[in-house]
Amino acid sequence: MTTQTPSLTANRRERLGSRYSRRLRERGQLPAIVYGHGTAPVPVVIDARETLRHIAKGEKVFTLAIEGEPQAQTVLLKDVGFDYLGSNVIHCDFARVDLNERVVTKVHVRLIGDAKGLKSAGNILLHPTNEIDVECRVLDLPDHVEVDITDLDLGHAITVAQIKLPKDDMKLLTDPHAIVAQVVIQHELKVEEAAVVTAEGAEPEVITAKKPEEGEEGAAPLAKGAAPAKGAAPAAKGAAPAKGAAPAKGAAPAAKGAAPGKGAPPAKDEGKKK
Question: Which segments of the chain does DSSP mark as H helices, in order?
């Protein structure tokens, strides 16, 4: 809980822009802005090493002395900007506050103790929610809240609703059903992840397959005496027509003197003999 606020000294920034800010960071300074309480925002620059050291410790409330202003003021760290890799702090936002003013801010959740469920091989601890949103007075703003996980067993979980806040007048704004800590079996976790990956990469089931066209390989043979399909290939040269089938249109007549096919009508007289 905030008992004594760390002090920072800031100078006004004469120039703005990303190029100028990069030059300030190269000299060990950190660009920032101060706003709130009905006054115009003031771009400032502060010592990067000292500021980041306090931020790493979880400090959020500072006493800030700005060059040219008659007295120092209490400010609350509202936002921290990172570079595109997310590894280096490149900017900070501070809001002017009163120590008795109620503010909304994020508070880090610290797990303490050794979970009972971790004594068995293959069990792991999940910590999906590591920050909660809290509304409280600036004077009562905690650096962190502690959650004891000593009695946490396999298959059990601790939710946000079970977190005990330091002051009764503090208001918890995070979803009370959000899981803070949970012990699970690592094998089950891998199986669930594999099932998700399989479901995402599965091919859609073929509902209707293409039926083979008549005349294609695998097509059913024609019924006895049925006419061939339109566009079907003609019978092989010299092959006898099917029993009872009509001769193909334009086909050559049977050779002279050839025996008529079984059941074929006798040929008409070609002419009288001379």
Answer: 18-26, 48-56, 186-201
